[in-house]
């Protein structure tokens, strides 16, 4: 039962990629490319480096033989590890940072993608979103005609290009919300819930290339669209209260630190300890609370101050330039 509920959890990465495209498009900057890229750097990089250092300290303390080689560490630090087919690169240091490597590519291409998509009419935007869904659904089948199963799995799981359709779908959703806001949301909520839950559990029963995103993209897309429309219409959603907003502010730090906490417990307690239900539940709660506390600390002590310093530094440098 527990395995059936939690095993598909990795599809949350797909939601993260779709949401990223939506948020960036919704807050699409009118400033130049360089300012956009600097803001993304200030948002992501300080926490990436901080958690990579923490993982290195953990490994040095408990498992020094698992420290990555210098080249692997450099690839991780510069967020290019997702381009490698080797698992040693993909899962180096803070293993979840491979998604930041994918995001770095999204950030690099976003200005051009936004420029192209914003020139389309609503029909063109819908067609682009449908194309993104088709690329993730039909792409693995086409890939298997020209490459082996392992190569196709790697491409659609790890690579920035293989995950790009999810980001593009998020971009199109933001544009659709701007141009079309249906009044009746209950049918959309029901359909989004059914598609999301159904796709979540279906994802572990299909071959891997389709399990990463294809099963859940329709549900995630409709859920995000409906929630955004409800929020803009000032209707109730479970994400508008102060607690959820605060947790949202900590969510990036939580994502980057949660596996570090899990690995800390693995190093001190053991890998997959066979505890009775009560003790196992207590350890799970402790893991969550420690991850949440670490996320708050990293947000307050690293993420927010570092972002402020980097953005203020750019403003000061711009003021010092001769006119």
UniProtKB/TrEMBL annotation:
Entry's Gene Ontology cellular component terms: membrane
GO biological process annotation, one example: polysaccharide biosynthetic process
Domain Acyltransferase: start-end pairs: 9-295
Keyword Chaperone: no
Keyword Transmembrane helix: yes
Domain of life per record: Bacteria
Record-level Gene Ontology MF annotations: acyltransferase activity, transferring groups other than amino-acyl groups
PANTHER family documented for this protein: ACETYLTRANSFERASE, ACYL_TRANSF_3 DOMAIN-CONTAINING PROTEIN
Protein name: Peptidoglycan/LPS O-acetylase OafA/YrhL
Source organism of this protein record: Actinoplanes lutulentus
Taxonomic classification: Bacteria, Bacillati, Actinomycetota, Actinomycetes, Micromonosporales
């Amino acid at each position: 039962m527990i395995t059936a509920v939690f095993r598909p959890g990795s599809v949350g990465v797909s939601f993260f990629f779709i949401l990223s495209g939506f948020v960036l498009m919704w807050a699409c900057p009118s400033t130049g490319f360089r300012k956009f890229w600097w803001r993304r750097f200030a948002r992501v990089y300080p926490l990436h480096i901080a958690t990579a250092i923490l993982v290195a300290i953990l490994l040095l303390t408990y498992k020094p033989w698992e420290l990555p080689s210098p080249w692997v560490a450099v690839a991780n630090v510069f967020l290019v590890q997702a381009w490698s087919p080797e698992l040693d690169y993909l899962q180096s240091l803070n293993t979840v940072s491979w998604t930041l490597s994918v995001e770095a590519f999204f950030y690099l291409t976003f200005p051009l993608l936004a420029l192209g998509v914003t020139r389309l009419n609503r029909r063109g935007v819908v067609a682009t979103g449908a194309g993104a869904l088709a690329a993730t659904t039909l792409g693995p089948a086409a890939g298997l005609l020209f490459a082996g199963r392992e190569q196709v799995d790697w491409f659609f799981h790890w690579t920035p290009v293989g995950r790009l359709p999810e980001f593009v779908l998020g971009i199109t959703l933001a544009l659709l919300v701007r141009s079309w806001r249906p009044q009746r949301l209950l049918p959309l909520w029901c359909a989004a819930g059914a598609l999301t839950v159904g796709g979540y559990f279906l994802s572990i029963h299909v071959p891997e290339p389709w399990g990463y995103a294809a099963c859940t993209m329709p549900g995630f897309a409709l859920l995000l669209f409906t929630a955004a429309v409800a929020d803009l219409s000032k209707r109730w959603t479970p994400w508008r209260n102060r607690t959820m907003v605060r947790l949202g502010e900590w969510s990036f730090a939580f994502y980057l630190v949660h596996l570090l906490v899990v690995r800390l417990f693995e190093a001190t307690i053991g890998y997959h300890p066979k505890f009775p239900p009560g003790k196992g539940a207590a350890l799970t709660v402790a893991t969550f609370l420690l991850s949440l506390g670490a996320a708050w600390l990293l947000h307050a002590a690293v993420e927010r101050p570092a972002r402020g310093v980097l953005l203020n530094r750019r403003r000061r440098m711009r003021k010092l330039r001769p006119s």
